[in-house]
Amino acid sequence: MFRIGTALAIVFAFQFAQAASLEAIKSNGQIVIGVKDSSPPFSQMDAKTRTLTGYDIDFALGIAKRLNVKPIFKTLESENRIPWLKENKVDIVIADFSRTTEREKEVAFSTGYFVTDTRVLAKKGLFKNEKDLATGHIAVPAGSSEAKLMRKLFPKAKLAEFEDTPEMLKAVAAGVVDGMLGDGPVMMASQGKIPAAQRGQFEVSEFALDLKILSVGMPKNEKTLQAAVNNALVDMETSGEALAIYNRWFGPQSSQPMGRIFKISPSRN
Fold this sequence. Notes:
CATH topology of the largest domain: D-Maltodextrin-Binding Protein, domain 2
Shape: elongated
Distance between the termini: 28 Å
Number of strands: 12
Mean pLDDT: 87
Radius of gyration: 20 Å
CATH class of the largest domain: Alpha Beta
CATH superfamily of the largest domain: Periplasmic binding protein-like II
Strand content: 15-25%
Order of helices and strands: HHEEEEHEHEEEHEHEHHEEHH
Number of helices: 10
CATH architecture of the largest domain: 3-Layer(aba) Sandwich
Structural class: alpha/beta
Low-confidence stretches: 4-18
């Protein structure tokens, strides 16, 4: 597992950051990055070593390296992400931050560095299109975005909330629920864990309910900073570093393997 020594790379900033312009960041020789400390595998704090690790942390380090500045990590909660950018408490945010049309009204975003979609795993032919979910009995992760999405799109659908994916898969395989909803790559991996004798009876839907794009957040109108972050992300893709990070956290040997369905592109994902 990739770790960052506290003394070398993690400094918790308690003062307000200066305006998040690229010029100011380079002049200061450091970039204040808002991150989470309890959102595995994207970012988490090791209680013993007091080091941050995760997919987001690795990308934060890669961006800081390419800007030739020191990363200063400042931990935040989800509700802090936009306010702290607008108040210049952080220069950028890399914290499981999905880009949405509503959020783009308040802050700017980079090209996506993680992309996934939401699909259903069920018996073959049971859900031919998304409208079929309206009358289904669907397993979803407890308190998840998938649960919120189902309630918004199909308020009459019956939901069963589970703590983790293996529990949902058991319910689907046993016929307790009609299907399970989650990230497309996770659903594909789950199908692969069904016993071979049954596996052919199940399928991951061809349709997707939504698309989730994680991006780096930054204050609005910082076009030069946005371009520099995008260039750093694209360089990480071109050099192979982005794929290596993905494999570290989502590859075949990781705790939750997922197929990579995207590449970081100069044009916005």
